[in-house]
Specification:
It is found in: Cytoplasm, Cytoskeleton. This protein has 796 residues and is α+β, with helices and mostly antiparallel strands. It is built from 20 helices and 19 strands. The strands form five sheets. Strands 2, 6, 7, 8, 9, 12, 15, 16, 17 and 19 form a ten-stranded mixed sheet that branches.
Length: 796
């Protein structure tokens, strides 16, 4: 067991532009622990009195300045951890810092130069180089690559990663066994026999990582990635197997949203990144505190996977990546503080050795066979798995003689064969169980004898209970007879009262001596009549609104409405609905009559069953016989008929309810269609009236001018109606051009009757362009003119 704290290192990233002198300094005295001092320059904008802290000093195992290359980082940080993994210990290396500080460059490396390779490819090269040198052991290597994106785990080595979207891939879930060991479901392990295969798996996983451009970094990794090398070793012929795993963790960078100003999808990613790093810091703080009972590993997926690396069986190393520019000093100080807390955690690394169960089984089987051979050589006989029939009979005889022997010092000698000893025990157990079963049978026979003596008592109890039951039945019947008698007396009394009331009713309705009572009766009946009339009025008003006041139409307008309705597209639907509605009404009526018949039949059957019960009880009382418990055939027949009628009643009632719903739906459809038809007719009628007024010739003839002057009142009324055509309640028929009585007197002397009717030329009627519609309009106008002539002749 190796006890040590987590090793912390610091690496300073070269700045994009030349940094200001005096921001930080590194003290690497050989006698002392290296320390990093960060100096905050005084901001004159804060005033002369400024109590802010100006310098921060942090200690690390080693600090790598801006000129440190990748080879130096590997030799000082990753190589010792890889050596411990080859020895059988677990190891973890993780980089922590703000976004854009060089974490991915340190762990994975850059793609521009071969010398920019990071810790992961250099570690793979070192491990496979050592495996080739050591030929005394058998090594197997497996690779896994886990990505934690928005708190969901994904397998970066899944071959479906490129063809499918991220949501369609199976998520990696965490499982925990009773020993609190973590297992990752849906995370594949790929065996790598050479360095080339391992590097191909690394490059495949890197291409599947989530990378986005942010204000702090052009290629910022938006997820935590854990590259794990599983190594197992075994010496030839040995049953001991060593297992070790190395986690190389590239954490996503923390960032201040207010500083970077990201939004949308990048903002969501930043939230999850900062939240998981917050949970990691909570675990670090809990581990650094003494006497802390609970460590919140389960708060996030990353801390659950790295449970052994943080305060467990692992040799852990942390690399704090720092970007010591003036704008990033606050984040760099926060990273250094986090590293100081990590350095307080102690891990206990244990050599992971276990015995191969397959080799143990083979060794035990070989040992058993050797012992059998030695036993056969000592006894001089080869033993089989089971005893022979002769040996079993001999053992049973020995057991019988041993049990029959009355000598208390007698022994059962079967030799040193354990098979015979076990068989003797089994046989004795069987004899003991048989004896117990026999004793139980004898006890049960004695109890049966006792039970045979008790039937008389039981019979006595039954007869007594039957007697009590008959007494109760007699009392109930007597009470029923008394009630029936009382009902008959009350019926006779009511009949006498009815006869007296009938005699009084033949007298005058309002006696002469009391006229106020008749007046009160008339007044009391008046409100009910008024209520009935109000209900009728409401119904008529509703019908009036639905039909659109069709009863107020004039004769010509009704003819136009009938022609419009006949040619309308919904007329066929309305007629079909009317026919269906009539059929449903007839069906509902027939069903209602059938339901009433079934209901009356059910009541009749119930009365017959009740009468039969009363007759049976009365017959039993008169003849002193017991009432039969089972119903007779006639009652069964009545009950079956009753059940059949009930089923029929339910079926018809269900059908009636369905018909009611269908009828209401059809009525609603018809009402809607009628309202729609009426509205469309009103619109059409108003448009036609407007066209007739606008397109009429200004001066047709002198007689027409005189006639229009005489009927100016009616024309004013027509224009008034046309201006109010939007009002539904004011829909009226256009006034007929028949002259008033005053104008008739004047025209009778000057012009003939036919000239009094304004005849509009057919050529001045506005046409629509459709031949069928135009012919319908002309026929309608001609019919209207003939009707108006007849009306005027009749009035004369």
């Amino acid at each position: 067991m190796v006890k040590q704290t987590i090793q912390i290192f610091a690496r300073v990233k070269p700045p994009v532009r030349k940094h200001q002198q005096g921001i930080y300094s590194i003290d690497e005295d050989e006698k002392l622990i290296p320390s990093l001092e960060i100096i905050l320059p005084r901001d004159l904008a804060d005033g002369f009195v400024n109590n802010k802290r100006e310098s921060y000093k942090f200690k690390f195992q080693r600090i790598f300045d801006q000129d440190a290359n990748q080879e130096t980082i590997f030799e000082n940080i990753a190589k010792p951890v890889a050596g411990s993994v080859l020895a059988g210990y677990n190891g973890t290396i993780f980089a922590y810092g703000q976004t854009g500080s060089g974490k991915t460059f340190t762990i994975t490396g850059g793609a521009e130069r071969y010398s920019d390779r990071g810790i992961i490819p250099r570690t793979l090269s070192y491990i496979f180089e050592q495996l080739q040198k050591d030929s005394s052991k058998i090594y197997t290597t497996h690779i896994s690559y886990l990505e934690i994106y928005n708190e969901c785990g994904y397998d970066l080595l899944d071959p479906r990663h490129e063809a499918s979207s991220l949501e369609d891939l199976p998520k990696v879930t965490i499982l925990e066994d009773p020993d609190q060991n973590i297992h990752l479901k849906n995370l594949t392990l790929h065996q790598a026999t050479t360095e080339e295969e391992a590097l191909n798996l690394l490059f495949l996983g890197d291409t599947n990582r989530m990378i986005a451009e942010t204000p702090m970094n052009q290629a910022s990794t938006r997820s935590h990635c854990i590259f794990t090398i599983h190594l197992s070793s075994k010496e030839p012929g040995s049953a001991t197997v060593r297992h070790a795993k190395l986690h190389l963790v590239d954490l996503a960078g923390s960032e201040r949203v207010a500083k970077t100003g990201v939004g949308g999808h990048l903002l969501t990613e930043a939230k999850y990144i900062n939240l998981s790093l917050h949970y990691l810091e909570q675990v670090i703080i809990a581990l650094s505190e003494k006497h802390r009972s609970h460590i919140p590993y389960r708060n996030s997926m990353m801390t659950s996977v790295l449970r052994d690396s943080l305060g467990g069986n692992c040799m852990t190393t942390m690399i704090a990546t720092l970007s010591l520019e003036k704008r990033n000093l606050d984040e760099s100080i926060s990273t250094c503080r986090f590293a100081q807390r990590v350095a307080l955690i102690k891990n206990e690394a244990v050599l992971n050795e276990e015995i191969d169960p397959r080799l143990v089984i083979k060794r035990l089987q070989k040992e058993i066979q050797e012992l059998k051979d030695e036993l056969a050589m000592v006894t001089g006989e080869q033993r089989t798995e089971a005893l022979t029939e002769a040996e079993l009979l001999q053992l049973e005889k020995l057991i019988t003689s041993f049990l029959e022997d009355q000598d208390p010092e007698s022994r059962l000698e079967v030799g040193a064969d354990m098979r015979k000893v076990h068989h003797c025990f089994h046989h004795l157990k069987k004899l003991l169980n048989d004896k117990k079963i026999l004793e139980n049978n004898t006890v049960s026979s004695e109890s049966k004898d006792q039970d045979c003596q008790e039937p008389l008592k039981e019979e006595y109890r039954k007869l007594r209970d039957i007697l009590k039951q008959r007494d109760n039945e007699i009392n109930i019947l007597v009470n029923m007879l008394k009630k029936e008698k009382k009902k008959a007396q009350e019926a006779l009394h009511l009949a006498g009262m009815d006869r007296r009331e009938f005699r009084h009713s033949q007298s005058p309705p309002f006696p002469l001596g009391n006229p106020e009572e008749g007046q009160r009766m008339r007044l009391s009946s008046a409100p009910s009549q008024a209520q009935d009339f109000s209900i009728l009025g409401k119904r008529s008003s509703m019908l009036h609104e639905k039909t659109g006041m069709r009863e107020e139409m004039s004769l010509g307008r009704q003819e136009a409405f009938e022609i419009f309705k006949r040619d309308h597209a919904d007329s066929v639907t309305i007629d079909d609905n009317k026919q269906i509605l009539k059929q449903r009404f007839s069906e509902a009526k027939a069903l209602g009559e059938s339901i009433n018949e079934a209901r009356s039949k059910i009541g009749h059957l119930k009365e017959e069953i009740t009468q039969q019960h009363i007759q049976q009880v009365a017959l039993g009382i008169s003849e002193n016989m017991a009432v039969p418990l089972m119903p007779d055939q006639q009652e069964e027949k009545l009950r079956s008929q009753l059940e059949e009628e009930k089923r029929r009643y339910k079926t018809m009632f269900t059908r009636l309810k369905a018909l009611k719903v269908e009828i209401e739906h059809l009525q609603l459809l018809m009402d809607k269609a009628k309202v729609k038809l009426q509205k469309e007719f009103e619109v059409w009628w108003a448009e036609e009236a407007t066209n007739l007024q606008v397109n009429s010739p200004a001066v047709n003839s002198l007689d027409h001018t005189k006639l229009f002057l005489q009927t100016s009142d009616s024309q004013h009324e027509r224009s008034q109606l046309l201006s109010n055509k939007s009002d539904v309640n004011a829909r009226k028929i256009l006034p007929s051009p028949c002259p008033s009585p005053h104008s008739q007197k004047q025209s009778s002397t000057s012009t003939p009757l036919e000239d009094s009717i304004p005849k509009r030329p057919v050529s001045s009627i506005p046409l629509t362009g459709d031949s069928q519609t135009d012919s319908d309009i002309l026929a309608f106008i001609k019919a209207r003119q003939s009707i108006l002539q007849k009306q005027c002749l009749g009035s004369n």
